[in-house]
Design goal:
By secondary structure, the protein is mainly alpha-helical. It has helices at 2-15, 22-43, 47-70, 76-101, 108-131, 145-161, 169-184, 204-219, 224-248; strands spanning 139-141, 189-191. 69% of the residues lie in helices and 2% in strands.
């Protein structure tokens, strides 16, 4: 009797023991591999391939979380693994790629810019993981690390595709890298799109905008690197545009009341 009860308890512990779900973590592993592959290709002076690999990492990074939610295979392990993968693919990889591509010529200033990007990516991910339960889901606090990586990798891919070697390209690379770095750790809000409900009806003009967006994508498909860099640049600037708009037109109730013409006397 006691042996049978012990076996049932053992089976119950095995049944409810936390495990590792293979599907979403396999997708995360592909994203991690793409980031590592980008580093290797940058070391071999294949910068366009390295930049493209970072964009591949972005695609799989966007898939793993959605697959986990659809298949109900979310886990604490998967969340931590995804964060570490993001640090490699969107933190270390873009910093090393752009350093090998253009920042090396700036000497210590070049590697300082690359390290600033890498450090800010780590800080951005750490802040996101600790504030995930308290921030507004509609907005990101600071530029997301995949978007920052798209900005940096997009610059490398677009310029390398055209073999552009104009003057002060290293300075341009440094400016973009530092801008992406400090925008990641800023408090500027960026629209996340997480409040979009595909089951909800929308105005007709929004459907028109979607159709125009699809047309523009197909029109620029032959110039993929430039298109990706342009989209990344627009998104990276959108947070500052929204901040400026809110500053110039604050929400009702935030304006100070006009001064009393009588000086406050009855």
């Amino acid at each position: 009797m006691e042996e049978g009860q012990a076996r049932r308890r053992w089976l119950a512990r095995r049944r409810f023991r936390p495990g590792i779900f293979w599907l979403p973590n396999a997708i995360t592993t592909v994203s991690l591999f793409a980031g590592f592959y980008a580093i290797v290709q940058a070391m071999n002076d294949r910068y366009a391939v390295a930049a493209a690999a970072i964009f591949v990492a972005m695609v799989f990074d966007g898939l793993d979380g959605r697959v986990a939610r659809l298949t109900r295979t979310q886990s604490a392990f998967g969340a931590e693994f995804d964060s570490l993968s993001d640090m490699v693919s969107f933190g270390a990889a873009p910093a090393l790629v752009i350093y090998e591509w253009a920042l090396r010529g700036l000497g210590k200033y070049g590697w300082a810019c690359a390290f600033a990007y890498c450090a800010c990516a780590a800080l951005r991910l750490a802040r996101f993981n600790t504030n995930i339960a308290v921030v507004d889901k509609r907005y990101f606090q600071g530029l997301p690390s995949p978007a920052a990586a798209a900005l940096v990798a997009g610059l490398v891919w677009a310029m390398d595709t055209f073999d552009y070697e104009g003057r002060r390209l290293d300075v341009l690379a440094a400016i973009v890298t530092v801008f992406a770095a400090f925008t990641m750790v800023s408090n500027v809000r960026f629209y996340s799109g997480k409040d979009i409900n595909i089951r909800k009806t929308v105005p007709f003009w929004q459907i028109v905008l979607v159709a125009l967006g699809v047309a523009v994508v197909f029109f620029l498909a032959d110039n993929l690197p430039e298109m990706l860099f342009t989209v990344a640049t627009i998104y990276a600037l959108s947070g500052y545009v929204m901040w400026l708009f809110r500053y110039l037109r604050p929400e009702p109730g935030t304006r100070h009341p006009p001064p009393d013409p009588d000086g406050g006397q009855d």
